[in-house]
Amino acid sequence: MRKTIISRTVIAFALLLVSNIPAIAADIYDKAEVQNFIDGIMASNMDENNNASAVIKVMKDGDVIFSKGYGYIDQENKKPVSVDTSLFRPGSISKLFTWVSVMQLEEQGKIDLDRDVNEYITRFKIEDTYPGEPITMRHLMTHTPGFEDGFLGYLFIDSPERFLPLEKSLENTQPKRINPPGKISSYSNWSTALAGLIVQNISKLSFNDYVKQNIFDPLGMSHSSFDEPLPQSLLDNMATAYDYGAGKYISHQYEYISNFGPAGSLAASADDISKFAQMLINGGELNGVRILSSDSLSKMINGGFTFDERLRGIGLGFFKWRWGPDEMNLFGHGGNTDYFASHLAMSQSDDFMIFLSVSGKGGRTTANLLIEAFYDRYFPRDNSPVMPPIDFEERAEQYTGTFQSWRSNFSTIEAFNRFSRNIAITAMDDNTLLINNKRYVEIDQHLFREVDDFGTVAFIENENGEIDTLVYDGVPFGPYRKVGFMETQDYATLINSVIGFIYLLVILRLIYRWKNYRAAIGSEKSVWNASLMVVASDILTSAFIQLAFNAINAAPFAVTPIYMPIALSFAMLTVPLTGYYLYRFVKFWPDAEQFDRIRYSALALVLLWGLHYFYSYNMLGYNYH
């Protein structure tokens, strides 16, 4: 035991030696240095990640530190990016315009942030899943209404012919409530679109017109629009979305988000976004034009929700970024479409703003590399070394296991997406936790920091004092819940492997005993046929599900492929076929030999296991939008 403690102490001191030493910030006012630094990152990453275009603007103390476009918004005609006029798709940064619109109406006494939102909508009502616990605008703004997530076939659409009025779109896709409001913050596009509908209902203007008249026009944002398709006057300046293949860029159609427009349909130039950002930095005013009171803006930045006061939470719509020193209080929003990755951050105390947007399927990679490198260089955090507690082993077990994102679906076929959002947590011999392939050190009760960086996570206890939630600093809207084995990818792999093996044996036995099969009569032939029918139905289910998922991966938001209803039809057919098989098995039992009883019993158990799996992931029905 003494040897073990000494060994772990040596490891702990080794960690101290390799931990980051607090960095000295580079000079953000040195414009030439900033340009060389950003140019270097973009030059080394845009080609590698097939980014056709990008735009970046940095401001400090009201002065433009850096402003530049990269690549071409039109590859065929080599039309370069313009910071002033080229439009990019900032994705969910659009939501900030929705939240500012809400607060404008709140200032006028037309919206009460704590009133049941059902009072503001007419065509439909949010289901009363938790009686006495209505959803409020405050819940929508903090992503705490308790909705499950969803997107398949309706979040993005592939043609203006599929445009629906906002109210109809939301009615058609209302998600299930899976938590009482105010308990879990889980990112929700539907919630933001609902807030936009409320703005529309109260103002008697379309949401797009409201934003234009009350935000764009007063701020001079002449190259911005929520309209889809874009007005012709802006279309020529829109950065084209490109795929990349066979050594060339291939243009992709405009990404339509109109049916959830307030959540993400904005197209805007970097110059326009910087005007909006400077207004927020100034406390709601730009160039003598005030569109929001400083008190309202203070509520948006400083109010909100957090799981743990030691972590950065979410404001009334604003993300509180984890980068920069604590006193910098960076806030803003990120945004991703399928073809654009964007980031907006502001600091009132430092009078600072950065906006960037990168196009292409690899845009997120380039954007993330630039974001991390930029903040590490110009606004580094103090990463003072920390030593793992030598007694951590006594507490480690409560944190281990599999955690799954709350931003998941539970009632439709999209439940399968939960497998892609799992985090495995393991206790290491050096008294650290391995979380998502990064090692973390305990620094306070239920609070951990990366060994070699400042990333921080907190574990949350439930009412029974058990750890059931994991939250990342700066990402309160993306918590993870602890799950049992039957909700993990390992369980899915196990059941599919066992079922696949048994089905293979059934097929091989048919081939090997073909003559016996042809010669079989009576109850033996009937149970054999029943087993083949149900196995065939299951195999066809799996085949068409795989085809459906392949099509979904190619266009994850806009397409519900035809393979999906076919797959689900076979899945549902498996239910009566399993019943028929069990009936025939029971009839055959008195005449069956011992070995036949064993193998047919094994198949029966596997079939029932498979049906339970189908039921768990909502495959017994046409459960999709």
List keywords for this structure.
625 residues, alpha+beta, Beta-lactamase, 8-stranded antiparallel barrel, 7-stranded antiparallel beta sheet, 18 helices, disordered N terminus
Overview of the molecule:
The protein has three domains: 31-378, DD-peptidase/beta-lactamase superfamily (Beta-lactamase); 396-483, no CATH class; 488-616, no CATH class. It has helices at 2-18, 31-45, 94-107, 137-141, 166-172, 189-203, 207-219, 232-235, 261-264, 270-281, 294-302, 363-378, 393-396, 489-512, 514-519, 522-554, 563-588, 594-616, and strands at 53-60, 63-74, 79-80, 87-88, 224-225, 241-245, 248-252, 267-269, 285-286, 289-290, 319-320, 331-336, 340-347, 352-359, 401-405, 422-427, 433-435, 438-444, 447-450, 456-461, 467-472, 475-483. It has an eight-stranded antiparallel β-barrel. Strands 3-2-1-14-13-12-11 form a seven-stranded antiparallel sheet, with helices on both faces. Helices cover 40% and strands 18% of the residues. The chain has 18 helices and 22 strands. The model is unreliable at 1-21 (pLDDT under 50). The protein is an alpha+beta fold and 625 residues long.
